[in-house]
Amino acid sequence: MLNEKQEKFAEAYVLHRNATEAAKAAGYSATSANNQGYRLMQLQEVVDRVHELEQQLETNVNVIEEIENQYTYAKANGHTNSAIKALEVLSRVRGTNSDKGLAVDKDTLETAIIGCLNVLGEDKVVQLLSKCNFAVELFEEDYSEDEEESSGDENETILVEENE
Prior knowledge:
By secondary structure, this protein is mainly α. Helices cover 73% and strands 0% of the residues. It is built from 10 helices and no strands. The chain is elongated, with a radius of gyration of 26 Å.
């Protein structure tokens, strides 16, 4: 059974999602709120009460739909960071197992990957590709094509090899 301050803390934590702010709202001093918030969140009965209060919350907002709308808007308007953040939140809301058991054909997967790559942008895609196991062969092909097109300067080839 929680005492009055602990109950106020649990209620405030549900609103603030910050232990220090919840401790202040529950009546703990500002100087000790950080420590008290941490201590209270270590008590199983407080954590259980927070969970219970969260289950009781009701909303008229379809959160997933709103996040999807934010993603669509951000993607359409070139707000890459916002689009990625919306995808991260959607992933957390839906859970990591939401795609288990779904059969995805090659074309659907390619379309999804292309969409993600477009959101990330060229620089980030090149950076990510350079981390792949097959990157050496991929970039060697590009360099050999560049050598054929260039004037045959051997110094350029040596610099590329040294950078790998």
